[in-house]
Amino acid sequence: MLGIKTGLKKLFRLSVKKLLRGKLSNDLIVRELMESFRADEMGHQAKTSGADLGYGWIHYSFVRTIKPQNILCIGSRHGYIPAVLAQACKDNKKGHVDFVDPGYGPENKNHWTGVGYWKTKSGKRSFKKFGLEEFITLYVMTSAEFAEKRRKLAYEYIYIDGDHSYQGVKYDYEVFWPMLKNRGFMVFHDIFVKGMMSEGKYGTNELWTEISGKNAIDLHLKGSGLGIVQKV
Ligand SMILES: C[S@@+](CC[C@H](N)C(=O)[O-])C[C@H]1O[C@@H](n2cnc3c(N)ncnc32)[C@H](O)[C@@H]1O
Fold first, then answer.
1. CA-derived radius of gyration, the chain
2. Which atom of ligand 1 lies at the shortest distance from residue 100's CA?
3. Which domain holds residue 40?
4. Total domains in the fold of the chain
């Protein structure tokens, strides 16, 4: 009896492992991914128990629709949005995410709620568990260090969620905008967030007011807000 139970448990674990490496196609996989990369209810309006990706749906559907070859993602505490982007590439059978985060934690002055995850072994291994390793490369460095090394790249989709000071987010905008392909999209998290942190004043809202013109989609979502601007 015990043997059958153990066998069934083993089989179940194997099937879950197999499922995790598949398409984003059922609630079990979605919930596993959300838990593993700590999808948060506040910042992304995500609800893991209901397999509701929140803002993640927007990124996922954009990537599934425009089928980009190259995506750049700057900053993520535990990897939720980079994982969604990589999963969308995997489901497209095409595309790659360059994910840049220095793995800042509270000991760094400009961590902007970073938790030091990308410097740890589990951070570095996290994408493999979901079979995403072919679709994403992690660069443990600042956006400035990355831009210095990889100046010639061109992207169809760029997501900015790193240094949230006005100077920081403006730097990312100015440096990466020229690397955005014509008709590509640049997406900013936290466009509605205002106020002070120990790191300084939130600045995405101010930059967004400056750059959002006629080619911008100002998504009036609950929560931190997402600003999308197309290069035309
Ligand atoms: C606000 S957190 C991102 C939180 C995000 N809303 C989420 O869902 O995970 C900011 C992240 O940006 C990273 N970061 C801070 N300064 C950066 C920089 N100059 N370049 C790239 N990433 C940076 C931090 O290490 C941190 O992980």
1. 18
2. 21
3. 24-230
4. 1
